[in-house]
Amino acid sequence: MIRAINRVATAPIHIVATTWSPPIWMKTNHNISGYGRLKKEYFQTYAWYHYKFIEQYAAQGISIWAITTTNEPIDGFFGLARFNTLGWSIEDMVIKH
């Protein structure tokens, strides 16, 4: 589908990819939804997960313009959503040097 879009596009296509939730073994609640955050020990693993995703698309000639590490990060703090969630605090989203 992406290749077909690129063939007929008259302007550059910018693909934004997102994961809704990491695998449950990476999460504090061990569940796909509900109140859960990424375990600190899996921050780098999750980064590699995204990197490999981008790498695989690039191998197929498809460029990813941007990524997000979750969709609707606040939902992972409320625990009310019945769909895939992952909570991110502002502190966890900050790049620390």
TrEMBL record:
Please report which protein family the annotation says this sequence is part of.
Answer: Belongs to the glycosyl hydrolase 30 family.
On whether Transmembrane is a keyword of this UniProt record, the answer is no
Q: Where on the tree of life does the source sit, at the highest rank?
A: Eukaryota
Q: What is this protein called?
A: Glucosylceramidase
Q: Name one GO cellular component term.
A: membrane
Give the species: Papilio machaon
EC number per UniProt: 3.2.1.45
Top enzyme category: hydrolase
Q: Which UniProt keywords apply?
A: Glycosidase, Hydrolase, Lipid metabolism, Signal, Sphingolipid metabolism
Q: Please list the reactions this protein catalyses.
A: a beta-D-glucosyl-(1<->1')-N-acylsphing-4-enine + H2O = an N-acylsphing-4-enine + D-glucose
| GO biological process annotation, one example | glucosylceramide catabolic process
The answer, when asked if Glycosyltransferase is one of the entry's keywords, is no
The Glycosyl hydrolase family 30 TIM-barrel domain is annotated at 6-91
Give one GO term, molecular function aspect: glucosylceramidase activity
Q: Which PANTHER family match?
A: GLUCOSYLCERAMIDASE, LYSOSOMAL ACID GLUCOSYLCERAMIDASE
